[in-house]
Amino acid sequence: MNETRNTILHALSDGPVSGPDLADRLGISRAAVWKHVEGLREAGFDVVSADDGYTLASIPEYGGPAVVYGLDAPFDVEYHESIPSTNDRARELAEAGRAESVVLANEQTGGRGRLDREWASPPGGIWMSVLLRPALPAAHAPILTLAAAVATTRAVRNLGVEAGVKWPNDVLVPGTKSDGQGERKLAGILTEMEGETDEVDWVAIGIGLNANVHASSLPDGSTSLRAVIGDVSRREVVQTILEELDDLRTDPRGILDAWRMVALTLGRRVHVETPGDTVVGDAVDVAFPGSLVVETETGRVRVHAGDCEHLRPTE
Ligand code: BT5
């Protein structure tokens, strides 16, 4: 949202404020004020005009302007009712030179997981990609995936959902069984990037969070916020995720501690399928920029990437 429109919104939320008064404050014409007010109405803001001036009666439930309104992080937000994949759109924006942008969709028709797996993205979920141009070498970029998992977990914990992170990128709701089994996936993260070895050009962090969707429209082993606590304000959840992520990225090495605090994997027996190997053992720690440290029968190994499964303690 442009600066002037944002200033007008804030003035309206403290309103009533008259058109001429707004024009004076902003140094623009009354016609320009009127145009901005019309623009805000078109974006779904309910601007009421009475004798004493304009007031903001309500804000839209969801969408780009709704997320930007009151957001304490420096992102533009582009919203789509339906799009193949927000990560693909973020790539297009990156190639057009954009940065610090978020692509948000109500539905994805071609949502992707890692290794080109399908990601179910029915209407009502939170499907978003955050486009960043961090000053990081490419090898350090995985830390941003961990940051996104932490940000998402914090946002859902804020709602009272006891979620945690399975290495590296799954946000799970723990099962009720005492052996730790029965965990269900609430969110996943897919980070894609381009750049040279010594510096990332851009990173698109795709976050898929099953928010206001029926668990029956998701694969087995998944859950949604609707199933756990009922429907939520997606606007507020997205704002929290973005604010947390913005905060975490300022200190890449501090992200590890934040991740440890929400981890479900540490202390668990794990089975990790890596691109060329299988590692089984006890997950003891996480190391920069995001490797899992596993104590195996033959010694301690660091796993950089792979699919991790939590095993029963005896397996
Ligand atoms: C992930 O992959 O968990 C990354 C998911 C990233 C999705 C976001 S949405 C916004 C952005 N745009 C995109 O196109 N993608 C990103 P992975 O760890 O590979 O897990 C994929 C597996 O999770 C699938 O093979 C299914 O078994 C399962 N799955 C598919 N859809 C799911 C859903 N909605 N909820 C939970 N599990 C799901």
> pLDDT below 50 for ≥5 consecutive residues: which ranges?
none
How many helix segments?
A: 9
Overall pLDDT: 94
| Adjacency order of strands in the biggest sheet | 3-4-5-9-8-7-6
Task: Describe, in short, the structure shown.
This protein is an alpha+beta fold and 315 residues long.
Characterize the structure shown.
This protein has helices at 3-13, 19-26, 30-42, 64-68, 86-95, 142-158, 225-229, 234-248, 255-262, and strands spanning 46-50, 53-58, 76-83, 101-108, 126-132, 164-166, 170-173, 184-195, 200-209, 269-274, 277-287, 291-296, 299-303, 307-310. The longest helix is centred in the middle third of the chain and has 17 residues, at 142-158. Helix 2 (19-26) crosses helix 3 and helix 6 crosses helix 8 (234-248). 29% of the residues lie in helices and 30% in strands. Strands 3-4-5-9-8-7-6 form a seven-stranded mixed sheet, sandwiched between helices. The chain is built from nine helices and 14 strands. The protein has 315 residues and is an alpha+beta fold. The model has no long low-confidence stretch (mean pLDDT 94). The termini are far apart. A hairpin with a 3-residue loop joins strand 6 and strand 7 (170-173).
